[in-house]
Amino acid sequence: MTTTRPRPTGSSGPADGPDTTYEHHLTADEQKWIDKKKYAWIFSIIPAAIPLIIWGVAEWMAAINAPAFFYHASWFLGPVAVFILIPIGDFVLGRDGENAPEEFVPQLEETKYYRIISYLYFPVMLASLILCCWQWTYGDMEWYDKLGLAWSMGMTSGIGIVAAHELGHKKTGFERWLAKIVLAVPAYGHFYVEHNKGHHVKVATPEDPVSSRMGENAYIYLLRSIPRQIPRAWNVEKTRLARSKKGQFNLDNDVWNAWLITLVLWGALVIGFGIGILPYMLIQAVIGIALLEFVNYLEHYGLLRQKLEDGRYERCSPEHSWNSDNLTTNIFLYQLQRHSDHHANPTRRYQSLRSDVFAPELPAGYATMIAAAAMPPVWFAIMDKRLMQYYNYDIERANLHPGKAAKLRKKWNRIAAEQQTVKAG
Fold it and tell me: How far is CA 262 from the centre of its chain?
């Protein structure tokens, strides 16, 4: 089997023309390639059912008269699953490392099985939400049990935003509206616009509030980033609608209609279960949003697109996203960790995303790195060194936090000089 594909960067083309393709003969192994993860994707639905699973565990604990500690602790199994079990899975199963041959990508993209898997997250998540509202309202729970329930639902909501992210990039109206419905659970509907038309345009630049800066801890990042995302999304839609001579509050405004979906969903739950569920809804929303934004913090930390002579930024490339190719987390997060390929091909479906050898690599999966980011000294000790090693100790290539820029330059210029001395010796 013979195909053509783009010529790799650095390859020399023919002397008499600009042809940028070359003939590629698939190897025997490539020709019989199959997706070994195909049926593992079923496990990506599990996070949607976290509250249902822990509810079952709690009921089982009660049924067998387990010690009270185990019954109450079972309501907190959501964060335990995300921050302990998934990292253990990453450690045991290791890295993925397998890419589908590019020639098989169209086939993967058109296989409906993968789409059905991503769609299923949403009804399961909504079932979790509604049944947990019932448990919060009518269940015999202590206040700390309710806190565990809401925290666990927050894990489902946060990963739900990742699932909505997967479909929000797609071209079909059904998938985009499905994304908005899921974003209504954590009340983060503006993400649909902000991410696609804001972050993807300005990624890895100082103008992007979603791209974290070297020297900026995660908590300062959250306070800087989250408030700036809403007005940016609104302005994007306001500008788009103005070109069609429509007002900013027109229902075609994708921020406005996403917020209306949130209002309808939350309103229906309050009508159905009473105003007493609002603390539950607020807790799960805050936890879900925080989980997403910690992931955002990881993905582009300190990475910077350089400005060209015409004042524009260079095109986004693999070097502008931190990747992590741990198998377990890839399964549960729809391969979001293959982030460079996502930015290069935003509409590419999760099953087709590819690991890029030229992208900077996180030392562990997202859950482990979120735990590190929650402790800024630990994060800086790990990631500042890794960032500078990737940039060959050239501090001017990094996206620096303005308040820490002078201190960082002094530190890393000194270390760079020491490295040069060692090499010269």
Answer: 21
Per-residue burial over 301-318, b = 16 or more CB atoms within 10 Å of its CB, e = otherwise: bbbbbeeeeeeebeebbb
Alpha carbons within 13 A on the beta-carbon side of 181: 15
Residue 188, Cβ neighbours under 10 Å: how many?
Answer: 28
Amino acid, single-letter form, for residue 228: R
Between CA 415 and CA 409 the distance in angstroms is 10
Residue 204 to residue 273: CA distance in whole angstroms:
44
- Per-residue pLDDT tens over the stretch 233-278: 999 999 999 999 999 999 999 999 999 999 999 999 999 999 999 9
Distances (CA, A) of 260 to 28, 246, 250: 53, 18, 12
CA 213 to chain centre: 17
Distance CA 217, CA 74 (A): 32
Q: What are the tens digits of pLDDT across the range 154-188?
A: 999 999 999 999 999 998 999 999 999 999 999 99
Helices (H), 199-314: 200-202, 218-243, 254-273, 278-299
Measure the CA–CA gap between 413 and 151, rounded to whole angstroms.
43
State how far the Cα of 408 lies from the Cα of 388, in Å rounded to an integer. Answer: 11
- Single-letter amino acid, residue 40: A
* Residue 129, token pair as written in the block: 């939400």
Could you tell me which residues come within 8 angstroms of residue 216 by beta carbon, excluding any fewer than 6 positions away?
A: 224, 401, 404
> pLDDT tens across 363-415, in order?
999 999 999 999 999 999 999 999 999 999 999 999 999 999 999 999 999 99
**Mean pLDDT, the chain, as a whole number?**
90
Tell me, what DSSP letter sits at residue 313? B
